[in-house]
Amino acid sequence: MKRISTTVRVVLCLVSLTVSSLLVARAFGIIVDPRNIVMSERAKLCESIAINFSLLVMKDDAKTLEAGLKAVASRNSDIRSIGVRTVAGQLKLEVGDHHALWHPP
Fold it and tell me: What pTM value is reported for the model?
């Protein structure tokens, strides 16, 4: 039977120690998942947009609302389209090709 050399054993131990250290660090939140940061920032952006534009809707200021939505869409390359719907689901305002791009969840 062949024995595993000491060098191979040391390397395997170091690799195991490194992998377990990374897993523990991630479990305790020391290493942050970049996807969580992106999703958190997107949620904050959506909340801010919703608050600001809901005030414009309450004032019935469609022109300012549309201009604001176009500005948001043009400044954020991740946004492909924006749609404003009534409670019944009727599309009242769209920026970009929202009808073609939007697929209900």
Answer: 0.57
